[in-house]
Design brief:
By secondary structure, the chain is mainly beta. Helix content is 11%, strand content 48%. The chain contains 1 helix and 7 strands; from the N terminus they run E-E-E-E-E-E-E-H. It has one helix at 99-110; strands spanning 2-7, 10-20, 23-27, 37-42, 47-58, 61-63, 87-97. Strands 1-2-3-7-5-4 form a 6-stranded antiparallel barrel. The model is unreliable at 68-79 (pLDDT under 50).
């Protein structure tokens, strides 16, 4: 599904390749920084969400924040057999409109 992502006066068109109620992976080769705030519009669902970039992937390189919770957890990256698409993993902070529609869409497509 196509989305438009707006950040710092720049708007880009991209594709959602994975979605959940709390976030999504957006396929794009545009360089978008970790913790960047985005406004995501999904015209097809008449939905607008505010989100933040939690991780990025360029080719086979995954960039994620170095988090050291109390239980020492490490990030491990396993190189896939073929290169996954570049893009960004975003967390949805809130919806300006269409949150219920988006949630229903995610639920329908996760059961398919």
């Amino acid at each position: 599904m196509r989305v438009s992502c707006e950040t710092e006066g720049v708007t880009l068109l991209a594709e959602i390749s994975n979605a959940s109620c709390g976030g999504m992976f957006i396929t794009t080769s545009a360089p978008i920084a970790l913790n960047q705030q985005l406004k995501i519009a999904i015209k097809q669902l008449d939905t607008v969400a505010n989100a933040v970039v939690k991780w990025t992937r360029q080719g086979t390189t995954l960039h994620a924040p170095s988090v050291r919770p109390q239980s020492a957890t490490a990030y491990i990256y396993v190189r896939p057999r073929s290169s996954p698409p570049p893009g960004i993993g975003v967390e949805i902070v809130d919806f300006e409109r269409g949150g219920d529609i988006y949630g229903s869409w995610v639920e329908r497509h996760s059961q398919a």
